[in-house]
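Blinded run. Sample ID left blank on purpose so nobody reads anything into the name before looking at the predicted structure. Input follows.
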Amino acid sequence: MAKKKSRKKLFIIAGLVLIGVVGVVGYQMTMGGGKDGEPSKPSVSSDLGYVGLDPFLAPVIEGRRISKYVAVGIILELYSKDHKPLVYKNMTPLRNAFIEDFVFQAQMNSGTTQSILLHRVKSRFRTLANRIVGDDIVKEVLIANVMDRGF
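Blinded prediction complete.
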């Protein structure tokens, strides 16, 4: 009689474990990106991609006046090289947003002796890029060169 009770308990435990496993697998297939469910993230290459923007002119303002211009070269580091077409498609809005932000920052910092903080510019540009092309596309904004263009 003791064997029958222990077998019965064993079958009940095995049944509960089986139900739990089926439930977890079913949930992952429908919600977690299994074969039949929609993937939570698109599959993309793990190789980083790089897209260079044409240099643009940004003003340097001293004493509330434009003292000179600098040519700024930017490279966008992407989480995947598969995102390049999306970035190229949005190149004009990206350049426009970067130029507008650079001019805005120059105006806000005019009249101060504070120099431009590149990490702040890069952070602002990354935020702008994420708004334009979407999150998880642009990993980093790299400032490739800054050249004094004078007047």
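Unblinding after everyone has recorded impressions. The chain has four helices and three strands.
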